[in-house]
Each structure stands twice: as structure tokens, then as C-alpha cells.
Amino acid sequence: MRSNSFILIMEHKERGFAMIYTVIMTLLVFLVLIYSTAKDIRYHEIPIELFLFLVIPLGAFGQILQMGPGLFEVITMTLITALCYLILACFFGGGGGDVIMMTALAACLGNGIIIVMAVATILLILYRVLGGQETKAPVPYAPFVIVGFLIERMIYFK
């Protein structure tokens, strides 16, 4: 009987640590995305250093602690996201910062990146169509990504 209680206590602690990691990761990524949105709107630049040296290590740290999405999920979604955004950058003139930003987010979110990508793409299309934007005119992508990230996190924490 005593060992069952110990196992339940340890499982409860693990879930608590997982939630703490998830909240910290969410807040840090959100702050990086806020800064990225401001920089993307003003200068049409994504601060790739923050994604390379903060967001990707957050995803790696989650893997080391075995919290968050599984390793296979993270690797698969990171590769798929990188490939999709590289193709978009090559054929439709997207920037390399967008590729790094989305790939880094995939390293933290796993399958959740699908929601971020879908929301950001739908919002970008709506902005282009409703805003009367030319197809070749540069449009900051980070504002759409942050909305997608917030929606994905709302679904995750529901």
C-alpha cells in the first residue's frame, strides 16, 4: 500500500514539473514572438539569434527532461516545417528568418506547429485578399505567427 502512495506522489510531482516547464516555455516563446513581431513590422527582420539560442534550446531542454512532445514527434515536425518553409522561401520570396522562426517553434511545439502554421497562413491570405496587397509586396509574417501561437496555447492549456 505504501509503494502505491509513493508512486502517486511521484506522478503528481512529474506532472507539476511538466506544467511548470510548459508555462515557462510558453512565456519565453511568447516574449520572443512579441519582440520578433515588433522587429518584423518595423524592419522586416526576424531576430534569428533568439530562436537559435533560446527557443531551440528550450525544445531540447524539454526533450532532456522528457517533457512536452516526444522526440520522434519533434524531429518529424521540425523537418516537415523546415522543408515547407524552405520551399515557400525559394518559390514565393519568403525570408530565411521565417524558416528559422517556424522551425524553432516546431522544436518546442511538436504537432502544435500545425495549428500555428494553419492560423498564420489563413490570416496572411485574409490580409492579402482583404487588404488589397500586391502579391510581391513584403508582409511581416511574425504578427500572424503570434496569433497562431496564442490559439495553439489556448487549445493546449484548455
Which key features would you list for this structure?
158 residues; mainly alpha
Rg calc: 18 Å
Main pleated sheet = none
Q: Please give the number of β-strands.
A: 0
Helix content: over 70%
**Uncertain stretches:** none
- What is the 3D form? elongated
Structural classification: mainly alpha
Average of pLDDT = 90
Compute the number of helices. 6
Strand content: under 5%
Determine the N-to-C terminus distance.
34 Å
Order of helices and strands: HHHHHH
Secondary-structure topology with pairs:
Elements: H1 2-43, H2 48-64, H3 71-92, H4 96-109, H5 113-131, H6 142-157
Helix pairs in contact: 1-2, 1-6, 2-4, 3-4, 5-6
Write structural notes for this entry.
The protein is mainly α. The chain is 82% helix and 0% strand. The chain is elongated and about 65 Å long.
Outline of the structure:
This protein is an all-alpha fold and 158 residues long.
